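[Q] Does anyone have a clean structure-token version of this?
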Amino acid sequence: MSAGDRGSSARSRRRAGVVIPLFSLRSARGWGIGEIGDIAAAARWLESAGLSLLQLLPINELPLHETSPYSSLSAMAIDPQYLTLADPSRTSPLVQGNMQIVAEKAGTYYLPAINLINIRVQKEFVIKNTQRLHVMFNMFNFADTKTVTAVNWLTGPAFNQPADTLDGTVVRFSLRYIF
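[A] Here you go.
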């Protein structure tokens, strides 16, 4: 096979398409957030434009309070918000109407302020021009506050309750001798 043949073979395998987040695909039939059902119409439109690839950004289900689509719960689970809802006969779109949304007040899911005071003192002593003595003193959580470091996000009676706290003061003293 000559170099010219390899080039033409590579060109015949080349394809063009688009990478798009699903929420950018909207149809008159959907809720306006992009749905799995909108993919078929988008693929037909791409084909009519001479494109053969449609790549979607991740549509996996996210953990509670996660915003990055790359931090999904599972590589297999599609986020339910992208499912297409229609009547059982599938002859007409879902009629959008009033809906009640229960919202929590701002700040409900945030950890409390961290009230830590850490103290660090370090001194270097030079001994005989070539030797050094480093003295270090660290005190963590000086005020001995019970700082919340994790909150329970699972549903139930423990929801939004502290799951872990930083208790007590930690003191560390160290010496380092360099010769």
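[Q] Thanks! Anything notable?
[A] Residues 16-82 form one domain.
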